[in-house]
Design goal:
globular; 5-stranded mixed sheet; 4-stranded antiparallel sheet
Length: 306
């Protein structure tokens, strides 16, 4: 299929504008939507109704919030990567540590997501930019396992439905989508480049039911759909310069955006946007653990530098 830049209708879904909205998640437990604002350290939840996002709750989790993942059981809350660790956020807004500090001093947790086995994969990013960070998996027993070293800015990741392939973006320095084979125990192997992303910085990523990859491209004012072998299938032009991440809520592609660093933001910068597409997605894979077991940094397992 040849690449095309489409003129799909892009709607503004949110009344609110965020400094750096990120990491949207479709919650399969109740059909709600979660997202974060990195700049305010807050986790937001709401619902899509009549073509709009209706906000319901917002919890300040920490200074540098990364990515959320729902727990499997209804009412069990969320795990969130924040600052240098992973925390549990209950449905009534109580924040408690699940791990100790696992990111390095001066670094902080960034994007992440689940796999079909119930792990929470979350990576850190470095400040200043240097390839010394890590992609972790938080096992269902709460143990953080270092899966990939040498990371600079850990961003979008998506597992295929079998969990045997991980698609991953370390935005810098190569601005590429990569893929890994995933063993049943979570070990990564066969690292390869799917494609380079030109014209901007690849950020958050989602996978649709056909196994195609949707990627938000920061500073390109686009989201793009790629095949698993790196063919650019479609680009959707956006009214916001800095899309940060995407999620498929069935056939509604929801796009978070940022207004940070934009001298004269437009109406769409910092909003949550929506585009109807033909092939939908599934709810987020949940974390299949319980938050009762709290680990410290001494429980870190397995270093990897693939």
């Amino acid at each position: 299929m040849p690449h095309s830049q489409t003129s799909r209708t892009v709607e503004i879904l949110s009344d609110a504008r965020y400094v750096q909205a990120e990491s949207p998640r479709w919650d399969g437990r109740d059909g709600s939507l979660a997202w974060i604002d990195m700049a305010t350290g807050s986790l937001h939840r709401g619902r899509i109704a009549h073509g709009r996002i209706v906000p319901e709750t917002a919890v300040v989790v920490g200074a540098q919030i990364g990515a959320p993942i729902p727990l499997a059981e209804p009412g069990a809350g969320w795990l969130v990567g924040v600052d240098r660790r992973v925390v549990h956020v209950s449905d009534d807004g109580i924040v408690s540590a699940l791990t100790g500090d696992i990111a390095g001093t001066g670094d902080y947790m960034n994007d992440g997501g689940g796999d079909p086995s119930g792990r929470f994969w979350v990576g850190s990013q470095s400040m200043p930019r240097d390839p010394h960070c890590t992609l972790w998996s938080i096992e269902p027993d709460g143990t953080p396992v270092a899966r990939l070293g040498g990371v600079t800015v850990s961003n979008g990741l998506a597992f295929d439905r079998t969990g045997s392939t991980l698609y991953y973006i370390d935005t810098l320095p190569h601005r590429s989508i990569e893929a890994f084979d995933v063993a049943p125990d979570g070990q990564l192997s066969n690292r390869r480049t799917v494609c380079r992303v030109d014209g901007g910085n690849p950020d958050g990523m989602a996978i649709d039911r056909d196994g195609m990859l949707w990627v938000a491209v920061w500073d390109a004012a686009e989201v793009r759909r790629y095949s698993p072998d790196g063919v650019l299938l479609e680009s959707i032009a956006l009214p916001a310069t800095r899309p940060t991440a995407v999620v498929l809520v069935d056939t509604l592609l929801v796009i978070t955006t940022a207004s940070i660093g934009i001298a004269e933001p437009t109406e769409a910068d910092g909003a949550l946007l929506g585009v109807r597409v033909e092939v939908g997605g599934e709810p987020a894979f949940p974390w299949r653990g319980t938050p009762a077991t709290v680990h410290d940094a001494g429980t870190v397992a397995g270093e990897a530098a693939l």
